[in-house]
Amino acid sequence: MATDRQIEQCYRNARDRYAQLGVDTDQVLRRLARIPISLHCWQGDDVVGFERKDTQLGGGLAVTGNYPGRARCGDELREDLQVAFSLIPGRHRLNLHAFYAETDGAVDRDSLEPEHYRHWISWARQHRIGLDFNPTFFSHPKAADGMTLSHPDKAIRRFWIEHGIRCRRIGAAIGKALGKTCITNIWIPDGMKDNPVDRKGPRQRLAASLDEIFREQIDPRLNLDAVESKLFGIGSESYVVGSHEFYLGYAAARRKILTLDTGHFHPTESVADKLSAVLMWVPAVLLHVSRPVRWDSDHVVILNDDLQAIACEAVRGGFLDRVFIALDYFDASINRIAAWVIGARNAIKALMVAMLEPTDRLRQLELEGNYTERLVVLEELKTMPFGHVWDYYCLQQQVPPDRFWMPKVRAYERQVLSRRI
């Protein structure tokens, strides 16, 4: 294993090389340490939730794999998350879905209260992390036909509107209890398998439902609202009510955060390119970082070109104070804790690589029309020793560098996960 001294020496060499480009690596790492990533709780239990023993995943969602050790209750999930957080450099957040309430199935979603999340709030306070929140508009009998806030049945719509109202109040209670603003994000599965005749009606009902959910004024220091689009899903292949165009217009008109899930767009679309476009019109963007392989397949995030492009755009555009980053994938074919760690470390690493660019110099070359030198610098950056900077950042943050964190996961698997039946 590399010693601390070796890591420090490699970092000093890398720091000198980046300094020749006009980049202060010490400043980059201080800045990086202030950016939280919101881990998604649902990776740890395969999006099952804790409200009922017989919950069946619905809403066009699917999790593949049967790797042993799935968390079966809140205590187990929190224990697993603590292991994951201990292997991720920096101080981060947790993204919680409403159906992770610990109520033993005694409370339906239109009656949820902050009290039902007291264990999560206590745990977050103990570990000094923030919580984000999501209403759960799927895996429920009243969502069995694939429609919720846009449902033609007024009673069903009323149920889901009440759920959304209560979730915003829960988000505000979380923000107040932790002293960290909670982002409450609304995503619904509503759509149709075959071509509808009426595309307008469901969207009118959705807009009215959202307006009712958001009617109550909540202190933005406690809770911020976000709305999330999708492209299609299983059972909604032909029509999705809450499309990107719908929510872009809604977020701009109502001054809400727009959520861009990297799996919710056509494979030829660039989410990175959308940032500067939508941030012209909406107050902020929430990123749900995933890795679509064929569609919204939610593979574990890797350090690929798509991820790096998003990080570069967030940094180059000066958007880091208006772009919130969360993870959103679920893979039960590999160790679930490792999946969290891989994705989170890659998201942070992509941000670091973006910050190590001499952005001002590149922008000036572009303004001058010097595209030749711009390309030269961008290509030479690809062989710069960012790995040594990353290892040093891990050392600073007291987590194992690359190559040395997986043994800790394996040990936890032997001692804890393997005993879950």
Can you walk through the features of this model?
It is a single chain. The protein has 14 helices and 10 strands. It has about 425 residues and is of the alpha/beta class. The chain has one domain: Divalent-metal-dependent TIM barrel enzymes (TIM Barrel). The strands form 2 sheets. Strands 3-2-1-10-9-8-6-4 form an 8-stranded parallel β-sheet. Helix 3 packs parallel to helix 10, helix 9 packs across helix 10 (about 335-355) and helix 11 packs antiparallel against helix 12 (about 370-380).
DSSP summary, beta strand count: 10
The CATH topology label is TIM Barrel
Q: Number of domains in the coordinates?
A: 1
Outline the low-pLDDT stretches. none
- Radius of gyration (Å): 22 Å
Side-by-side strand order of the widest sheet: 3-2-1-10-9-8-6-4
- Give the name of the CATH architecture: Alpha-Beta Barrel
Strand proportion: 5-15%
Structural class: alpha/beta
* Distance linking N and C termini: 34 Å
Q: With helices defined by DSSP (H or I, 4 residues minimum), what is the helix count? A: 14
**Order of H and E elements:** HHEHEHEHEEHEEHEHEHEHHHHH
Shape: globular
Walk me through the topology:
Layout: H1 4-20, H2 25-32, E1 37-40, H3 74-85, E2 93-97, H4 118-127, E3 130-134, H5 154-178, E4 182-186, E5 191-192, H6 200-213, E6 223-228, E7 239-240, H7 244-254, E8 257-261, H8 271-278, E9 285-289, H9 305-316, E10 323-327, H10 336-355, H11 359-367, H12 371-381, H13 386-396, H14 406-415
Parallel strand pairs: 1-2, 1-10, 2-3, 4-6, 6-8, 8-9, 9-10
Antiparallel strand pairs: 5-7
Helix pairs in contact: 1-13, 3-10, 5-6, 8-9, 9-10, 11-12
